[in-house]
Write a structure and sequence with these properties.
alpha/beta; UDP N-Acetylglucosamine Acyltransferase, domain 1; seven-stranded mixed sheet; five-stranded parallel sheet; 8 helices; about 30% helix
Length: about 290
């Protein structure tokens, strides 16, 4: 017996939602669409049951904050930001984050499908049947690559400035955090971008954190509240701070896509041109020297 049972809503609602999503996807696929205007118009409708023009006349300050052209997001302060890519996805991220505060976002029959359309136009790659619940946020969005049947639950943070890959059937539980950049402990402006890879069938459970550059191999599990600082091998259940392998699933031979023992890590990149060598800055060397001398 499956844990999750299929449920349906009325045919009338299904037809209306499908028509809206088809039209929404068509607009995003049209290169001539002004995404900022589309964003502000939809937010006026979802949040205030109003047109943007009417809202602008009645509540101009509110209307200004619905328009992504009047908004600054944290990633816009990052040195390594690709401004061309971010300009395309910023209106969609602003729409996503604010849509998630609306009643429509809590309706799984509509909200998951709505976010799926957005993800297809934000991510570097978005596989089939992705399910994303309310409250998920990204740093830039365009550096996420997600496979088929990925599930991301509520209030997850994916810091993808350095790149995050989620292979098929990954499940990320509520309040988990996945990172792809690090700061030098002695010089916070010295930032290294590290691609983080989550293998097929991996489960990142509640409130766990995956630090930048980690590779979590296929069919493994990261336990609740754990912090992943190093690679995890296939079929392993790892937990703790830092996460360590504690159990191993006894599986028959099966194909492995991501195996940290042989996986070739993408090369680390420096996030700030003032520190040209990734991972070998003077501040970190000084910290190591002090630690050894004491």
């Amino acid at each position: 017996m499956p844990w999750l049972e299929n449920r349906s809503i009325s045919a009338t609602a299904t037809t209306a939602f499908d028509a809206f999503l088809h039209d929404f996807n068509a607009k995003l696929s049209d290169a001539s669409t002004n995404r900022a205007e589309l964003c502000r118009e939809l937010l006026a409708e979802f949040l205030y049951a109003s047109s943007y023009a009417d809202l602008e006349a009645r509540l101009p300050l509110v209307a200004l904050n619905l328009d992504p052209n009047n908004v600054l997001l944290e990633a816009e302060h990052y040195q390594p930001l690709d401004h061309t890519k971010f300009a395309r996805v910023k209106p969609l991220l602003w729409l996503w984050y604010n849509f998630d505060t609306s009643p429509a976002a809590q309706n799984l029959a509509f909200g998951i499908a709505f976010r799926r359309v957005l993800a297809q136009h934000i991510f570097a790659h978005c596989g089939q049947n992705i399910k994303i619940f309310p409250g998920v946020q990204f740093s830039v969005g365009y550096n996420v690559s997600a496979g088929d049947d990925v599930v991301i639950h509520r209030n997850v943070l994916i810091d993808d400035i350095g790149g995050v890959t989620l292979h098929n059937h990954v499940s990320i539980s509520d309040y988990a955090n996945i990172y792809s950049h690090t700061h030098s402990p002695l010089e916070p402006n010295d930032v290294t971008l590290k691609h983080t890879t989550i293998g097929a069938g991996v489960r990142i459970t509640y409130h766990a954190t995956v630090l930048a550059g980690s590779t979590i191999s296929d069919d493994s599990i990261v336990g609740t509240m754990s912090i992943v600082t190093k690679d995890i091998e296939p079929h392993v259940i790892a937990y703790g701070i830092p996460a360590k392998p504690m159990r191993e699933k006894l599986r028959p031979p099966m194909p492995i896509v991501v195996d940290s023992r042989v996986f070739v890590h993408p090369e680390d990149r420096q996030g700030n041109p003032d520190y040209p060598t990734a991972g070998t800055n003077n501040a970190t060397k000084a910290l190591k020297t002090l630690s050894i001398s004491r």
